[in-house]
Every structure is written in structure tokens, then in C-alpha cells.
Design brief:
mainly alpha, single chain, 259 residues, globular
Length: 259
């Protein structure tokens, strides 16, 4: 890994990650403060199973279900996906702008440069996950408590691995094509499709197997805020991250850069 590339990428995108982490903390704090006023009145929504899955169980009657539905199901994955995909796809943007070619004119290997930038993107994901954990701890306390630190840490850890896997996908597309738009749209589209598949596949037997291809399945299918860390799910996300990052290093090493 190129440490100068890591440091430069982190300086360029670190403020964005910190801003996203702070935003997550504040939003979760507001969500937690709303629970005592509205949680009991909403309760568990009577909606079809697929819709309930998309809403993280649609249980608003407990602080655990409230945080899972409001933060864990949509807002958390959305924010961390934006940070992960944007950071990982940036290397293609540098290639399109002609910056990458200038950098590689110096004695630095393509794979080391890519790994440095990938590490910076991963650091952004970790920062957002840490902000999420802080927000969950404070938000649950403000909402009346009842969820242990271990459960909140489990949700944040699953969220971090989810972001790393999506970032690695964007990195692989960027390294293979040199197109930032394609990397962003490809990884983002895959995430959206995975979200829908994870919600509706259990209702349609013919496509039920597709849920195992969705990162959302490994992120929240086993409800980490209620059941804690699921090691096989985290292992699957970690394996995907490693495999896609390795694929990215091979792709950028063997491809002619765009001019």
C-alpha cells in the first residue's frame, strides 16, 4: 500500500466522512428523542411481509425496533453506501481527469496506489460507522434505554462491513473501466437491487435464492441489534470485500489507462 496515496486521499475525502458521521450522530439523536412521544402510538405496522422487511420489521413500538426501522433499515445503509462508493470510485475520476497518469509517472506501482486509495475509502466507512455507534448510544439513552452497547456495536459493525463490500465493488468497477460514473452507478444500482431483492425474495419462491447475492441479506437479515454479531454474515461480507479488492488490483495492473 502507498502511504502517501492513502494520506492524500484521506485528506481530500476525510472531511466528507467526518461530516457524514456527525450528521448520522445528530439524526440518530433526534430519532431517539422522538421515540418517547410517538413510539407507543405507532406500534407495529400492519403491512405485507415484504414491506415490513424493507422497513426493518416495521416495529416502532420498542426502542430496538424503532432504531432498526428508522436507522438500520434505510438511513444508515444509504449514508454509508454514498461514502463508500464515492470514495472508492474516485480513482476512476482521477483517471478521467488525467491526474492518475501523472501520479503513476512517479515510481509507484499501480496496485500499491490503488490499495492506498482503497484504505482511505475504508477509513471513511469506519468513521461513519463510529459516528453511527455514537449516535445509537446517545439516541437510545435519550429514548429511554433498553438496548445494550453490544447490540448497538453489532449493528454498527454489520453496517461497516456492508459499506466496505459496496466500496470494494465500486473499486473493482472503477479499476476495470476507468469510468467514475459507471463505478458509481454500478455499485449503487447493485445496492438498490439488493435492497429490493432482500425484501421481496422471501415472498416469491422462484427468486428466493437471489437474496444470498444481496449485501443487505448479510447486513441485516439476522437483525444484529436484537441478536448481536452474526459471524458467518460478517465473514461473507469480508470475503466479498477482499475478493473484489484483489480483482481491482489485477484489473488496474493489466489495463491500459484511459487518456
Amino acid at each position: 500500500m502507498s502511504r502517501p496515496a492513502f494520506a492524500m486521499a484521506l485528506r481530500l475525502r476525510g472531511l466528507q466522512a467526518l461530516s457524514a458521521a456527525l450528521g448520522m450522530t445528530l439524526v440518530i439523536l433526534m430519532v431517539g428523542s422522538l421515540f418517547p412521544a410517538v413510539g407507543d402510538s405507532i406500534g407495529k405496522l400492519d403491512v405485507p411481509a415484504g414491506v415490513a422487511e424493507l422497513l426493518g420489521g416495521a416495529d416502532y413500538g420498542t426502542i430496538e425496533g424503532w432504531m432498526r426501522s428508522e436507522i438500520g433499515a434505510i438511513y444508515g445503509p444509504l449514508v454509508i453506501a454514498v461514502i463508500a462508493i464515492g470514495g472508492a470510485a474516485a480513482i476512476a475520476g482521477e483517471e478521467e481527469d488525467g491526474i492518475l497518469g501523472l501520479i503513476l509517472a512517479h515510481p509507484v506501482e499501480r496496485s500499491r496506489l490503488l490499495l492506498g486509495k482503497a484504505a482511505a475509502a475504508a477509513a471513511g466507512v469506519v468513521i461513519v460507522a463510529a459516528g453511527t455507534l455514537l449516535g445509537l448510544v446517545v439516541g437510545v439513552a435519550v429514548g429511554g434505554g433498553g438496548v445494550g452497547l453490544g447490540a448497538l456495536a453489532a449493528l454498527s459493525l454489520h453496517l461497516a462491513l456492508f459499506g466496505l463490500a459496496l466500496g470494494a465493488l465500486a473499486l473493482a468497477i472503477a479499476a476495470a473501466t476507468g469510468r467514475k460514473g459507471l463505478a458509481t452507478a454500478g455499485a449503487g444500482g447493485f445496492a438498490l437491487l439488493g435492497f429490493l431483492v432482500n425484501g421481496f425474495a422471501p415472498l416469491v419462491d422462484a427468486i428466493g435464492w437471489l437474496k444470498y447475492l444481496s449485501p443487505f441479506y448479510y447486513y441485516e437479515e439476522h437483525n444484529p441489534i436484537a441478536n448481536g454479531v452474526d459471524v458467518p454474515d460478517l465473514a461473507a461480507l469480508a470475503a466479498a470485500t477482499i475478493a473484489l479488492t484483489a480483482l481491482a488490483t489485477i484489473a488496474i495492473r493489466d489495463r491500459d489507462l484511459r487518456r
